[in-house]
Amino acid sequence: MSDTPLHTLDHIEMLRGLPDDLKAEVVRLCRWKRYAPQEQIIDRESDSRDVYFVVQGGVRIVIYSASGRELTLDDLLTGAFFGELAAIDGLPRSASVMAVQDTVIASLPADQFLRLLHDYPEMATRVMRRLAAIVRTATERIIDLSTLGANNRVHAELLRQARAAEFDADGAAVIKPIPVHGDVASRVSTTRETVARVMNDLARSGIVRRDRDALLVLDIGKLEDMVESVRGE
């Protein structure tokens, strides 16, 4: 786990810039719990309303199809927050959340969360930006699922990760850790076998190369062309 001190919310993006005495009050109001990898934090359709802060570790937001297929919506790391939708609209949870590593979570009751939004406009603005990002991401994924074949969806997901990665001296995007085929498949609603086949094709074409601890996207421009030509951009 990281070196983030336990029982502090100093690393939580939503609370950045708030007075120290207020943060101390929020610490006292929160419930704190450790979760093991793969342990469920929130169950979809549950009636809980708390807002959750990722104090240490990481979580995955998922939904499941009627057949039981897992679809990953997002991965959140230390400093992130989740659960704000149910706190705001009072409806059941829209997705399940599980820990993907040893994780410490602080949960804040919905009424206290709403009070903070009312009293501190800068915090409300951060929450609104987060909600706007969720809508934009969901729109992009709906378009991809509606218009792209499975192979192209894998290309698009790899491109998204490459754009968010650091670049080495040769201009290659360095994706760490190496994407797990099952995780990519869950994100783009396909199979592990399809992801493996696409990755092998990209490697043979010289677009990607797997190193010991990273996946290098050697030609991000070519990958962009492959995605945009299918999207019609």
Structure, explained:
The structure is a single chain. The protein has 233 residues and is α+β, with helices and mostly antiparallel strands. It is 43% helix and 22% strand. It contains eight helices and twelve strands. The strands form three sheets. The chain has a four-stranded antiparallel β-sheet. The protein has a four-stranded antiparallel β-sheet with strand order 2-7-4-5. Strands 9-10-12-11 form a four-stranded antiparallel β-sheet. Helix 3 (110-119) packs across helix 4, helix 5 (150-164) crosses helix 8 (220-231) and helix 6 (181-188) packs across helix 7. It is elongated. The mean pLDDT is 91.
List the keywords.
233 residues, alpha+beta, four-stranded antiparallel sheet, 8 helices, 12 strands
Write a concise synopsis of the structure shown:
With 233 residues, the chain is α+β, with helices and mostly antiparallel strands.
Q: Secondary-structure map with pairings?
A:
Blueprint: H1 20-29, E1 31-35, E2 40-42, E3 51-56, E4 58-64, E5 70-77, E6 81-82, H2 84-89, E7 96-99, E8 103-108, H3 110-119, H4 121-147, H5 150-164, E9 166-167, E10 173-175, H6 181-188, H7 192-204, E11 208-210, E12 215-217, H8 220-231
Antiparallel strand pairs: 1-8, 2-7, 3-6, 3-8, 4-5, 4-7, 9-10, 10-12, 11-12
Helix pairs in contact: 3-4, 5-6, 5-8, 6-7
